[in-house]
Specification:
Blueprint: E1 14-17, E2 23-25, H1 32-40, E3 44-47, E4 53-55, E5 60-62, H2 68-74, H3 80-84, E6 93-94, E7 100-101, E8 107-108, H4 115-124, H5 128-135, H6 152-165, E9 174-175, H7 178-187, H8 200-214, H9 225-230
Parallel strand pairs: 8-9
Antiparallel strand pairs: 1-2, 1-3, 3-4, 4-5, 6-7
Length: 243
């Protein structure tokens, strides 16, 4: 879910309690995470930004290789070699409850009325050129955007969701699209929402154009890096979609 403190609602310095799963800000004396650890005797926390583990209230870092599975689920990474073999080696993975799943073919949580967006996101996650581009974060990590531009958030969140959908080490056979959908609500100025049913075709058209623009493309003069990957002609806008 969105990485904000369950009490202060802040995105800054947020820790996940690995006992109950709730998010709290800070780990210093009198911080929300510290108080939670004392009141409920929950002692292991993960910094959601640095991916480091801490024991509270004693406040020391935990270094244990057995915790690497957790950090990988939070932030999966893919090598170029791994990406190149995704469609050649369809290998089933096993979730922690014993069920099996095929990476890339997993469910997205239906939070309220977001099934229209889920269908589009899952379809796009199985378009190989698009998938391969977003699985490798280095493709777009260094793209420069103007100060205050929020649209690049779509790129970041879509990349994160893509990597989680294709993660061969998921704990469960489904993934939450909550952060991705929060970015959609924000960047579309609430034209597409989680709580209100939307039109899938309209969402797809807006989303493709928004990604194209966020990655440096324009309607007339320039195509984005992603446009080059998908083979859109130079100087052309993203093709409009119609029902």
């Amino acid at each position: 879910f969105e990485k904000l403190c369950s009490i202060s609602l802040s995105h800054i310095n947020v820790y996940a309690c690995l006992v109950c799963g709730k998010y709290f800000q800070g780990r210093g004396l009198k911080s929300h995470a510290y108080i939670h650890s004392v009141q409920l005797s929950h002692h292991v926390f993960l910094n959601l930004h640095t991916l480091k583990f801490y024991c509270l209230p004693d406040n020391y870092e935990i270094i244990d290789s057995s915790l690497e599975d957790i950090t990988y689920v939070l932030k999966p990474t893919f090598t170029a070699q791994h990406i190149a073999h995704l469609d050649k080696q369809a290998k089933l993975s096993r979730a922690y409850d014993g069920t099996t799943y095929l990476p890339g073919i997993v469910g997205l949580n239906n939070i309220k009325a977001n099934d229209y967006a889920n269908a589009v996101l899952q379809a796009l996650s199985n378009v190989p050129p698009l998938r391969n581009y977003f699985l490798e974060e280095e493709n777009y990590r260094h793209i420069q955007r103007p100060p205050g531009d929020i649209m690049f958030l779509l790129v970041q969140r879509f990349g994160e969701l893509m990597r989680k959908l294709w993660n061969p080490r998921n704990f469960k056979a489904h993934v939450s699209p909550h952060e991705m959908l929060q970015a959609v609500v924000l960047c579309s100025k609430k034209n597409f929402q989680i709580t209100k049913q939307g039109d899938g075709v309209e969402f797809l058209s807006w989303f493709l154009n928004a990604l194209h623009a966020a990655l440096g493309g324009t309607k007339r003069k320039k195509k984005s890096e992603w446009g080059q990957v998908l083979g859109w002609p130079s100087g052309a806008p993203v093709p409009p979609l119609s029902p």
